[in-house]
Amino acid sequence: MVHVAAVESRIREAERRAGRPAGAVVLCAVTKTFPAEAVVEAATAGVTHVGENRVQEGEEKRPEVERLGGGGLRWHLIGHLQSNKVRRAVETFDVIETVDSVELADRIERIAAELGRSLEVLIQVDLGHEATKSGAERSDVPAIAERLQRCEHLTLTGLMTVPPFLDDVELVRPYFRELRELRDELNATVCVERPIHELSMGMSHDFEVAVEEGATIVRVGSAIFGARG
Ligand SMILES: *Cc1c(COP(=O)(O)O)cnc(C)c1O
After folding, report:
1. Whole-angstrom Cα distance, residue 222 to residue 61?
2. Is the pTM of this model over 0.85?
3. What is the secondary structure of 72-137 as a DSSP string?
4. Alpha-carbon 90 to chain mean position
5. pLDDT tens-digit series, residues 45-58
6. Is residue 219 in contact with ligand 1, taking CB distance under 6 Å?
7. Is the pLDDT of residue 74 over 90?
8. Distance CA 148, CA 106 (A)
9. Is 77's C-beta closer than 6 angstroms to any atom of ligand 1?
């Protein structure tokens, strides 16, 4: 039993509250730790984007999902990408949401060129400064964006963040707002010619607040699939 419809209707409610058009936000179903069968079930319920945080798990699951009839999905890498896994990530994913340095951008571009692949990318921004979380410093983001916009095989579409987990979701709101402001700043400076749109932010416990603050992609796992083991 996957709860896609319930999550979709909560997204639509939040869009309405915020005065945003219906369908402004895409649901990326986070399928880490859940089996291929659950991914296919979510696809049958209307999911079109899925997210995995580990390269190896995505690499194993995607062919299995496709064998079971779950084709046509867009696979997002939402976890930290180590440079020695770039080749496998480029082979498996359609969207890499976790570019966090110029060096990583260069490496992804070089390997995408070698493999003749085109990918969508987002820059992961570290706003909470927790020891366990990755992402680029806010001050490094313009240089990374500039570099990505010159990569022939990569299309920079936006920013992603994983804010601190706080029980009171109102305390998370400023992080979502900060990501939106950073996007708008980039669009007024280094991204004037090719503005970026996507804001990937919001998880099971805080996605409604993220939608109110302008999320265009929410990454939701446990609210759809249940608790992870
Ligand atoms: C696991 C994960 C999610 C989804 O978390 P839930 O709380 O299960 O919705 C979203 N984003 C990232 C980066 C994750 O690793």
Report:
1. 18
2. yes
3. SPEEEE-S---GGGHHHHHHH-SEEEEE-SHHHHHHHHHHHHHHT--EEEEEEB--S--TT---B-
4. 15
5. 999 999 999 999 99
6. yes
7. yes
8. 8
9. no
